[in-house]
Automatic annotation (TrEMBL):
It comes from the Bacteria. This is DNA-binding response regulator, OmpR family, contains REC and winged-helix (WHTH) domain. Residues 129-228 form the OmpR/PhoB-type domain. One of its GO terms (biological process) is regulation of DNA-templated transcription. GO terms for molecular function: phosphorelay response regulator activity; transcription cis-regulatory region binding.
Amino acid sequence: MSQVRSILIVDDDAHLRLSLLEQLSIHSEFQAFEASDVKSGLAVIKEHPIDLIIMDIGLPDGDGRDVIKQLRAAGFQKPVILLTGQDSEHDVVRGLDSGANDYVSKPFRFSILLARIRAHMRQHEFSDDASFQIASYTFHPGSKLLVAKSGAKLKLTEKETAILQYLNRAKGGVVSRDELLREVWGYNANVTTHTLETHIYRLRQKIEVDPTNAKILVTDVGGYRLSF
């Protein structure tokens, strides 16, 4: 069960935007938004938590590279992929220097863009910059930390971090014990559900107000889920 990730497409080519929206909609892991210019793109970013931006360089009301610089300066840390018809070394370097993670030259195959999208999302998820909201905590998997609203920091073990990461991807859906064991411990025949339950118990001791009546890391039919 995968997390639904939000993608913003900023391009003044209506045909291209529609094509990308249609192709992304085939994949249930994505929710796509569109904008035809800088102004409307920034409005979408303010209204929705965007996980990745696909941005054209040449927009009616600005240069995509300048927009990326502004976003980075404002604290936006999610991946950005530039779309460009200019693929000289100078243009590529300028685009990457602006804060973009990657660039794709037009015309391109959707399969190539899709692979880049997934690769950058995976990289970001395991980077020190990645953060996710879990109930009243901010989860930083790269530093194995949960930060409470008060600013208090809860240090997590590697396995606790991996459990929360996988449950977080399910976005409230139930993940079975067998699936968690497989994803967190791999195919280790010596690991049993008791091992998982022990880690769940310890996690609840850290994050729940009343660990005996869990409100965040919930036991549900068939497995566990996070209540956001």
